[in-house]
TrEMBL record:
Naturally occurring in which organism (per UniProt): Maribacter orientalis
Name this polypeptide is given: Isoquinoline 1-oxidoreductase, beta subunit
Pfam families according to UniProt: MoCoBD_1 (PF02738), MoCoBD_2 (PF20256)
GO molecular function list: oxidoreductase activity
PROSITE patterns from the UniProt entry: TAT (PS51318)
Domain Aldehyde oxidase/xanthine dehydrogenase a/b hammerhead residues, every copy: 226-304
Length: 728
């Protein structure tokens, strides 16, 4: 049973922590920066006369051989707290049993990843880019740490560095049969004048990896199991007070509070803070704040969303898709208009998807403490970080970036929602009003559902042309919806050999709050693409895998996943009556093809997914077992969103409030088995967190088509919609 007691913490800066900890510390900075040694007091109170550090760094080694490696990414269950330090430890040749992992400071100039766009370094745990973007950074930084240790041993033994090698946490001189542990080397540390800027050729040969690719238990699991892991929701600071906000049911509506005096007179209430879109209450306890929130008398203004009805908008979207004016071009290849004119046959269909809520387990919350003079601030939060590693607090308070210290915590789920810092800024505003008392802001589940930021609603019109032999010659994909890349990503067909392609986005905006949701636009778009392919295959009497095999003629890695999943799912084997299999391919960093086996209750309209198989090419895999866990979680989340999850808006107001009316997949509805086979690869690592989720909708609808001859084109596939299709 989880330990539900809260944790009281006292603010402690990084420098204070280092000064109070025993031993000396070796810090190696990010690639390209020179390392420095920090002077610390050892356990006997003796000050080590070493050079001070002026940059934060990647690794700390104490005299007893214990190693602390800093993780620059958010940890929300995806395993970054292990995978990134593991890459560093591999190149450092660290004994993993002696490694401890902590979050790095939120300083992008040192800990940021260059893998987003040229000339920038970000700390942003989104888009399944963490391992992909940090792989080279962590390898080079780990290799530099190893080089410093080798250099120090060479100076201590007065031997050429080229004669030295390393084993797990030790330097070896074979000629003299000497060995020295990394901890013992701390007393002899000597900084080289320059550090090699290791290229890929100067790093370990993958065949020599000891840690990467092995079954390594995740570092944070034990404390999550025994309840000692700290999430932001667990934290309590001395003199901390609590804040809540009442946000309108109409997104963006302006509030006018009519009973402020009554609210301030309530027991425990300390302050009322007005926002453009909400009224905030600060109280001594969360219970008092919530009671005051219920008592607020607010007159709400109008907003853009007023009058909008989500389930009635699709005919309007269909008219927009039919309009002669083109939208914004997302991808263009060849000439689709010519393909239509010369086609032997064309196919056209509209696919739709409703809004989806993130449903992260831990409610949104943050703690902010603003100093008495307003010139500095401390933040404790579970965040997916962002373009500003200080989460917008410097701009809010009008203070320098370096005056804000962010203490990153574990996240109880993110899925893109916690890459948005609205809740942190809200807390910052309350803390500014209560300075110097720390304020904890908590969103209730009802807050988050009704005022959430959803995966957008879209309509997608797909048109396909084939020649007389049934070969696809043209593929047009028109996306109608709000959010730009939120709806347009994932609509390309780079792994399918279709000579003429056109993807466009036509904008529609309704004032509903939107945000990245796991796999972003890939979920709806890959659903439409993969479903459309099977509709063509069904009409032409072609096996769906045979069709994709032909299309993947120039994409050997993608084709390998298709062939492997056909093998492990025994694609052509007979199935029990009332069951069918469906297939779908997805690229989202990594390449994956999935097959599901389903049945349909024709009385209730309920779809049951019995089994799911995935073949995955993710490049070099750091933690194979964790990758499989990611795929399993992605499939389950995908099934939940495809069969159940739905946000509806009537007159601009969200109709769902909590899990009683926002349905999620239950344990008894999870597939009997989810099997993942990882294809061996020496390619650069790719993300896996968002590969499985978007393949689910296509696989399910394609299995449904094979089973019933009917087409499901509107997500989610609720029992009511399934029955309507079956009875059509």
């Amino acid at each position: 049973m989880k330990n539900t007691s809260t944790k009281t913490i006292s603010p402690m800066g990084r420098r204070q922590f280092l000064k109070s900890s025993g031993g000396v510390a070796l810090f190696i900075t990010a690639s390209g920066l020179l390392p420095n040694i920090l002077s610390c007091t050892d356990s006997k109170g003796v000050e080590r006369q070493l050079t001070k550090h002026d940059v934060t760094a990647w690794v700390r080694i104490t005299e007893d051989g214990q190693i602390t490696i800093y993780n620059p990414a958010a940890e929300m269950g995806q395993g970054s707290m292990t995978s990134l330090p593991l890459v560093f430890a591999e190149e450092m040749d660290a004994d993993w049993s002696k490694v401890h992992v902590e979050f790095s400071p939120q300083e992008a100039d040192i800990y940021g990843s260059p893998g987003w766009q040229p000339g920038t370094k970000l700390m942003f745990t989104v888009g399944s880019r963490t391992t992909n973007s940090y792989y080279s950074v962590m390898r080079k930084a780990g290799a530099q740490a190893r080089y410093v240790l080798l250099h120090s041993a060479a100076a201590h033994w007065q031997v050429p560095l080229t004669e030295l090698s390393t084993g797990p946490s030790e330097v070896i001189h074979e000629k003299s049969d000497k060995k020295i542990g990394y901890g013992a080397l701390v007393a002899y540390l000597a900084m080289p004048e320059t550090l090699p800027d290791f290229s890929e050729t100067g790093l370990k040969d993958p065949k020599d990896f000891r840690l990467i690719g092995s079954q390594i238990p995740r570092t944070e699991i034990p404390e999550k199991v025994d309840g000692s892991a700290l999430f932001a929701m667990d934290l309590r600071l001395p003199d901390m007070v609590f804040g809540v906000l009442e946000r309108g049911a109409l997104h963006g509506a302006t509030p006018t509070l009519t009973n402020e005096e009554d609210i301030l007179a309530m027991e425990g209430v300390l302050k009322v803070v007005s926002f453009d879109y909400a009224i905030g209450v600060v109280a001594n306890t969360l219970e008092a704040a919530l009671s005051a929130k219920k008592a607020l008398a607010i007159q709400w203004g109008d907003a853009q969303a007023k009058g909008f009805n989500s389930q009635e908008i699709y005919p309007t979207y269909a008219k927009m898709a039919s309009a002669p004016e083109k939208g914004k071009t997302v991808n263009e290849l060849g000439d689709v208009d010519r393909a239509w004119r010369t086609a032997a046959k064309t196919y056209e269909a509209d696919f739709k998807n409703d809004y989806v809520y993130h449903a992260q387990m831990e409610p949104l919350n943050a703690i902010v403490q603003v100093a008495q003079d307003g010139q500095s601030a401390e933040v404790w939060v579970g965040s997916q970080q962002g373009p500003d590693t200080k989460l917008g607090i410097p701009g809010l308070l009008g203070i320098p970036h370096e005056a804000v210290n962010v203490h990153l915590q574990y996240l109880g789920g993110g899925f893109g929602r916690r890459s948005m810092n609205d809740f942190v800024l809200e807390c910052g505003s309350l803390a500014q009003a209560m300075s110097p008392q720390p304020v904890k802001l908590v969103w209730t589940r009802e807050d988050d559902v009704t005022y959430g930021c959803f995966r957008p609603l879209t309509l997608q019109r797909l048109k396909v042309s084939t020649d007389a032999q049934g070969t696809l010659t043209g593929f047009s994909h028109c996306v109608v919806g709000d959010g730009g890349n939120l709806v347009a990503s994932g609509a390309r067909n780079d792994h399918y050999a279709i000579p003429n392609q056109w993807v466009e986005w036509r904008e529609a905006s309704h004032g509903v709050r939107l945000k990245h949701w796991r796999s972003v636009g890939h979920g709806p778009n890959k659903f439409a693409i993969e479903a459309m392919l099977d509709e063509v295959a069904h009409d032409q009497g072609v096996d769906p895998i045979a069709l994709r095999r032909k299309l993947m003629v120039n994409a050997t890695r993608a084709l390998a996943t298709l062939e492997k999943v056909a093998e492990i799912s025994d694609w052509n084997a007979p199935l029990p009556e009332g069951r069918a299999k469906g297939v779908a391919f997805v690229e989202h960093g990594s390449l994956g093809t999935g097959v599901c086996e389903i049945s349909v209750d024709r009385t209730s309209g309920t779809i049951k997914v019995h089994r799911f198989w995935i073949a995955l090419d993710a490049g070099v895999v750091i933690q194979p077992d964790n990758v499989k866990a990611q795929m399993e979680g992605g499939v389950i989340m995908g099934i939940s969103s495809v069969l159940k999850e739905q946000i509806t808006v009537v007159d601009g107001q969200v109709q769902q409030r909590n899990y009683n009316d926002y349905q999620l997949l239950r344990m008894q509805e999870v597939p009997d088995s989810i099997e993942t086979v990882i294809l061996p690869s020496a390619e650069h690592p790719e993300g896996v967190g968002e590969t499985a989720t978007p393949m689910v909708a296509g696989a399910i609808t394609n299995a449904f088509l094979r089973l019933t001859g009917k087409r499901l084109r509107h997500l989610p596939f609720t029992p009511e919609r399934v029955l309507a299709v079956l009875n059509s």
